[in-house]
Amino acid sequence: MNDDRPEVLILTQDFDPTVDPVVRSLTAKGARVFRVDTSYFPRRLSFATSDFDGADRAVMRHHDGEIDREVDLNALSGVWYRRPTAFEFGDDMGEAEREFARYEAQHGVGGIFRSTDCLWMNRPDLDAVADLKPYQLKLAKKAGLRVPRTLLTNDPDEVARLAKQEGEGKLVYKSLSGGVIHYPGAFPSGLFTAVLGEEIDEHLPRVRHTICQFQEYIEKAYEVRLTVIGDSYFPVVIDSQGAERTKVDWRADIQMNYGDYRPLPEDVVRRTRALLDELGLVYAAVDFIVTPDGEHVFLESNPNGQFMWMQNDLGLPMSDRIADLLMKGHAGRRATKSVSPWASGEAVGRSCRLPARRAAPSASRRRRRPANTPSSRGCRPSPDSASCCRCSAGGTSWTRHSAAPTSPTSWCRARSSSR
């Protein structure tokens, strides 16, 4: 008897609590789920592709010592490239042989994965390109989004000239790679966005050590973390101006203020869709500043951004939407060229109301980060609409939008490091 259930592959490290609710949702929806880490290769993970038998065969086998599982890579509906770690070759080869094996695996495993004809969330080669912040800014501007004026340089004279031109308090320094510094023997420390003051003169020589990003300081009314899952958009308002520590960078406090739900303007949705289509992403966490005049300013897009803290705090059905996308595969992204960004003019300006056993968050709701604890409470999709899903308790319509087909791009190599 044939098993027609959708098959989903999740590539991530062993400890990744963000994946667990998605696995539960996939299982509840009837999917067959295979979760592995690329570090299992080659000792516990093997591949075989062949056309010697007259048909293209592509299988992956996971050997865990008790139950061997085999995945038909040609039958996958979707792959979630979450946070896999590097191949582990063991000590039975010398360093030179391990290096050769690593390069061979990057080309071989990467080529096998790239040959799959299924949806990837996201393809690692597209992830790598989409993570380049200067490229993001260029494409965002091309898509019609406002972006901060930006100087990228390792020339101290360029910074000194700009600081004198703009004046004190008018520029910020923002790291390009997330701002995490790993000092030996210590916990990773964060480098938050900072407004430049008179101390810039003292630190100018340090600019020469690497490329630095300086941007205009933009006054904020609030900020938006927009999570895009296929054609589902989840805009969450962050009241960063409600606390002194978060006015410049909302990551600077372990607690957070949420604001009341506000729908995204139609033009922002359309232009964000154009940006993500250009990058080839089906998932992204996109950050915006909203000015006192109501203008949305694009800051950056993280192709592998966290979302579970918002699902846990606000009861948003993000895990369910990811599960739906991975099960539907390419059919989960409609290929129509344009539709109204908000479904049929429905009222979407209300805050999401959660089930009665859990209080709805207000504008002053604060949470402690990170929050990756499992939660079974939240919103469930409404079965009565193909174009939007509603909280079962009423409230916000989290509307899905159309998406143009992505353009093919070359596969660089399988990523072998965690992100």
Could you explain how this protein is built, in words?
With 419 residues, the protein is of the alpha+beta class. It has three domains: 7-128, Rossmann fold (3-Layer(aba) Sandwich), CATH 3.40.50; 149-216, ATP-grasp fold, A domain (Dna Ligase, domain 1, 2-Layer Sandwich), CATH 3.30.1490.20; 222-399, 2-Layer Sandwich (D-amino Acid Aminotransferase, Chain A, domain 1). The chain contains nine helices and 21 strands. The strands form seven sheets. The chain has a four-stranded parallel beta sheet with strand order 2-1-6-7, with helices on one face. Helix 1 packs across helix 9 and helix 4 packs across helix 7. Residues 334-419 have low confidence and may be disordered.
CATH superfamily (homologous) name of the largest domain: ATP-grasp fold, B domain
Q: Tell me the fraction of residues in β-strands, as a range.
A: 15-25%
Rg from alpha-carbon coordinates: 23 Å
Strand order of the largest sheet: 2-1-6-7
Tally of contiguous helical segments: 9
Q: Mind telling me which CATH architecture of the largest domain this is?
A: 2-Layer Sandwich
Main sheet specs: 4 strands, parallel
What is the highest CATH level, the class of the largest domain?
A: Alpha Beta
